[in-house]
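Bug #77: duplicate submission created two jobs. Keeping one. Sequence:
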Amino acid sequence: MHSRFLREGSIGGAPEPLWLAFRMNFLENILDRLGKTPDRPLLQEARAGGMISVRCRELLESIAAAREYLAEAGLKRGDRCALLAHNSIRWAALDLALMAEGILVVPLYARQSPRELAAMIKDCQAALIFCGDESLRDAVAEWPEAPRTVLFDQVFATAAKQYHRPPVALEANDAITIIYTSGTSGETKGVLLTVGNLDHMLSSTTARLDLLMGPTEAPDQVFHYLPFCFAGSWVLLLTCLSRPSVLTLSTDLTRLADELRSAKPHYFLNVPTLLERVRSGVESELEKRGGMGLKLYQNAIAAWLRQQAGNARGLDRLWLALAERTVFGAIRRPLGPNLKALICGSAALEKETQLFFLMLGVPVLQVYGLTETTAICTMDHPQHIEPGRVGPAISGVEMKLGADDEILVRGPNIFPGYWNRPEETARVLRDAWFHTGDQGEVNEAGNWRIIGRLKNLIILNSGHNIAPEPLEEMLRRRLPGAQQVVLIGNGRGYLVALVTGAVARERIQAEFDRMNAQLPHYQQIRAFHVEKEPFTIENGLLTANGKLRRDAIAARFEAEIRELYRRKGA
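Kept job's structure:
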């Protein structure tokens, strides 16, 4: 059972994995586990024709082949090499091989704009770019001053001769990766993460998953669709390799439902957008069908919300029991029969969406963190979820509020600095505290809630401060068909909004009128502009992980915003 890998240790009094007790680092532990269980199923790729699977032995063979290629290519410890590819078993093997050689891995997002990717490669001075396929290689060839590219096929073309070569000796403060963050202002910075950062983080994620899975000999069945180039996604991959798991990789987001049915996961990592889309899709379908199913669902959800608020009525249990026998089971079915929880990170999840899944019997465990915190600062406890909050700080990590309710963090998860940016590093790392730029609050139970981004704060010329994110989320939820809502008003007399998607102006105006009637004067929205085309990564108005690039949006729609204020006389 999973608990056999734990003992009480020194990390904030939390269970410490035995590999840390024996002074193995996370990479040595992963390679050691692969060698001790050679026939254990480990990774699989969901394909249209079925699953492509590898066991521990086969992954070790691929890692060894990649390490030999790296040595023959003349790469040395401390070099930087980029991975530009979609998720795959080979991606995982090459990532581990690079780290085992002491080479810094620079994972890149395949959907990022060529201009941004070229800037990252130039910044880190990558010696090589490893490309997953020919289309990505050909795209790189068009970049100015592009370094040499190598296809995965070339790396894994021959079998390894030195199968059991140990990894290079790495100390806790040795950097192992540079992960570029796509800032909401458009500026990218390379975040250095160390062996020690990962040692601590994987001990924390393993402990949380032990609580979720409970005492069992069976391996975790995990499904994964988020790109490994993101810190949280990468941490999940390494966590799965550090514990008894079978990780199924999605290869086609258009077949997500089919892949989920095949994987039958116990848990998987999500972004809020997908979970909110599932909820809105279910509710839209029920409204379209109407009839008794809709009536039953509406009564059940009203009963559930009353129970959560402590105002249960006599028939509430009956409505929930009837819904469980009819509606809820049908909604859960696409998620598979083994699901214990959904894990959600990257942005705040709407409380209503978390309650929706909890009503279905599927807890959503929220995670909060940044790349600079090795992806995680807080994690929900599986047995103590507080909807609308992102859980307590993980073991060994301190969090507090600074000026303007900014969240400050310190601990072994905090990065040592940005690549070649000492001034930026000094700005966010002060007296060992990392200044996250996020605004939050914490309750007596130690559970945190994220309010918004400090630099997104709108300050009207009246002096009123407004965090735009809660209002934007409320409006988007109330406007079916809306893709994004962005509030504007810094230095102005009042708020205006940009709305994207197929939404009628009359519907927007009616909803704004209803909401304005319940808001203080300075939070009321006086005008809006509708743009049918949504903001995307490709048009440069979203970051690589889907967050709004507010400066770019304001610049792109400068004329429209100016016209909104001109018409209203401000």
